[in-house]
Amino acid sequence: MITIDAMMVCLDLSDIDEKLVAFTRSLCERLEVRKVYFVHNIKVYELSDDFKEWFGDVDLASEVEGNIQDIVAEHFGTITDHEILVSQEPNTEVILANLVKRYHIKLTILGKKMSNKSSGALGTKLLRVLPCSVLVFPETASLYIRKMLVPIDLSDTSVYAIRLSKNLSDQFGTQLEIMHVYRLPSQFFPLISEEKAVSKAEEVVKQKFADLQKRHQEIARIPYTLVRAANKSIAERITLHLEKGGHDLLVLGLKGNNPLPSLSLGSVPTELYNTNINVPLWLVYSGDVIK
């Protein structure tokens, strides 16, 4: 059973907010979530002089809070204890990171617009600085989760992601698939034939996965797909598999073992975030990594 003591939902007062709040409700209906914080930060310095001249000394924070209350009342209701937090700070990343620490947030939900509508710069910054797992919800994603994909690299981080995915799959009553993308050491060609190299690589990876299954019996019956990267990146192969497989949720484990926060996200999660995928992306840190 997955229990989330505190969840944070980041709203930006755009059209995606209603769908984001509705998706949060669907999670709370299927997971044990004890409290949800709906948050928005007003960057006052970005307001134009015309705005200040037209509206004068209006209590903007109260107006924004009222707007969010209306959305929450319509699309979330009273299904779970919740609170609305509106701040007015110059740096959104800093205030949100502080909220995660102050309220012991375990999962943050971020909305994501398609690349033709937004640069995604703030989202990328948040993924790098928030000390918790993050669920990215694209504006084109479905509210319903029927099939999940968890790509792994056979590390301890992968095991944590698989366990989370298995628990989610059991609670949601959905299908779950494990995927591994491998690369061949191209520097050895043409000394070794490509056919032999592929055969040997698959044999090695399958044996490693079999050993993983022996150590963790809970994943023994989960379908497993092995894919060669070939001329594409790992993220591109994952994206293609998502499109072909009809998955509704992608779960990735994050190592977080780099002492520099700006470098800890990793190339595959970053590339996937910057790709216009149509499914939610759950980027999960283990509890030990967060500590």
UniProtKB/TrEMBL annotation:
The keyword Membrane does not apply. The keyword Methyltransferase does not apply. InterPro entries: UspA (IPR006016). It comes from the Bacteria. It holds the Pfam family Usp. Coiled coil: none annotated. Keywords: Plasmid. Transmembrane segments: none annotated. Residues 146-272 form the UspA domain. SUPFAM superfamilies: Adenine nucleotide alpha hydrolases-like. This is Universal stress protein.
